[in-house]
Specification:
The longest helix has about 55 residues. It is built from 21 helices and ten strands. The chain has a six-stranded mixed sheet, sandwiched between helices. The chain has a four-stranded antiparallel sheet with strand order 2-1-4-5, with helices on one face. Helices cover about 65% and strands about 10% of the residues. Bound molecules: adenosine-5'-triphosphate. The site of adenosine-5'-triphosphate has 13 residues, from helix 12. Its main location: membrane.
Amino acid sequence: MLNSRDYTIFDLIVTPFRIIPVQTLAAILYMLLDALMPAYQTLVIAYFINTATEIFNGRADYSLIVKPIALIMGYVIVTHLFPSLMQIVDLTGRNKLNVTLKKEIVLKRARLEYKHIENNDTWELIHRVCGDPVGYFMNGFNNILSGMNLLIGTASLLVIVMSSTFITGIVIVLVAVPLFYIAIKTGRENYAMGLDAHRIRRKYNDLADILTNRDYAEERTLFGYSSAITDKYDKLYKESYTIEKQIQIRTFVNLKSGSMIALLIGIVIVGLLLPPLNQGELSIGLFISLVTAIFSLVQRMSWQLSDTMQQHARIKEYLKDFSEFAKLSEKEDAEAVPVKVDGFIFHSLEFKNVGFQYPGTDRSILKNCSFRMVHGKTYAFVGENGAGKTTIIKLLTGMYDDYEGEIFINDKNLREYSFAELKGFIAVVFQNFSKYALTVKDNIRLGNILKHDEEDIRKSISEMNLNGMIQGLEFGLDTYVGKMKENSVDLSGGQWQRLAIARLLYSDSAIHILDEPTAALDPIEESKLYELFSRINTDRFTIFITHRLGAARISDEILVVSEGRIAEQGSHEQLMGYPSGMYQKMFASQRSWYEAESKVHYG
Ligand SMILES: Nc1ncnc2c1ncn2[C@@H]1O[C@H](COP(=O)(O)OP(=O)(O)OP(=O)(O)O)[C@@H](O)[C@H]1O
């Protein structure tokens, strides 16, 4: 489980230890063994060359070569057989880590306060962190191991080099310091540039979606915007490609020029070993194996160490993001399934002087917003775009709780209900309701995941007048809907909307909220919908948000929202009685349409 704290390099080891202890231990043991191999190789090759020289010079028996050969075989086994075994261990570990870590991250995401989902910056952060967490953790862990491997390997080789020629060892260490510095600096800068590239990549991926997704097919064809969007896509693609190219060039120039210098210094070091060889202080075997070792050491330090340090800097930057993500505030019960409150019967709902600004903004969306609603009546919010109607619903459903003033349900403060309870007795169909690429049955079942009642699913379908549509489907309720799946059937806008409302009916919630529920319905369906909700309003409570005033007037009370407060409240007749009232003006502007329509449908 992710805790709200700073995550450090230390966590790159602790996390795999917690989730895959056996594989982690095996990887560490292998790293230690492998780290000693350069020193081991140097010594056994020196041993082999010296023994072979002795045998060729006739100073030793042939049988003495068996031992160095056996030792060389040991080296071959460790360096050639073990890596393949470790690949298998790594794969099994990676799978388990993947499942566990991803689950923890998904749960954290589900627990986040809603404001983070609607905020662009945190949404970017969430996107960055959740992209490939296992890749970062696993690479981070392997990177630490390869860093340690390099350190131990280098140190053990240095001991051998220094025991023969001390000054050579010191030169090697001095070469390493600037290389080390360049590697860290490049790593940090590359991560920062990588963020820019990531941001641009997301933008052009969105455009690619517009260019290819079936959902946009009709408008794409009719508006003919493909070529304009393609130009924009190309521009962004080039921008991101330029950044990525810059990263690669800088990496190459910084690190590889360092490597060239290191290689030259390696040659100088070999030159330094020649005098001790001449003077017989160094055996020929040790000279040859040391030369091999020094070149491999310099290469490791310049190429491998640079790469390791660069990765390390990149992963450290990722961990900063990860910590920020882990510390994002959560909502209690956010991921909990709705809880049914025994015996809950709706009586009243009240907003008292509620004020609200979206987090991170300084504009008040709701200002001293007050109203009261009671059981037995239907209510409709009306008002201009952006007046604050949906915001009222977001507060009522507990999505945001940092508002001023008070909200009551059944005269009990909203803050005293748990989020799970609120989810249990309030169900909403939002304007931009979800269209799930699932079966018809599952689309409805999501409204109440705890209930398995096919009878009730059919009832909701029938209430939403979807029977005819279902009968026409090859697999009935089990037919997949949506555009993307094979064998799936796409629905019309109105059918999707009715399916979303059927989901709400299936939820068994006491309070129903329908935000623009009839936008995609024809007038006959619209009037049937209002009839249905006034029928079920005896044991449920319904709030509508609508711009269609002909529909709103069927509600017992209409609340006109303007500039974040309730400007007018009353029945259609009462509001029409205010000669210069907002409702009256709004209705007048829609009158011609509704008068013609109402004669037919609203009576
Ligand atoms: N997450 C958010 N962050 C910042 N501002 C927001 C956010 N969501 C909505 N707003 C702003 O709050 C204001 C009220 O929005 P709201 O969706 O409540 O209006 P509405 O009355 O439902 O409008 P409409 O009739 O168009 O659906 C708008 O100006 C909108 O831009």
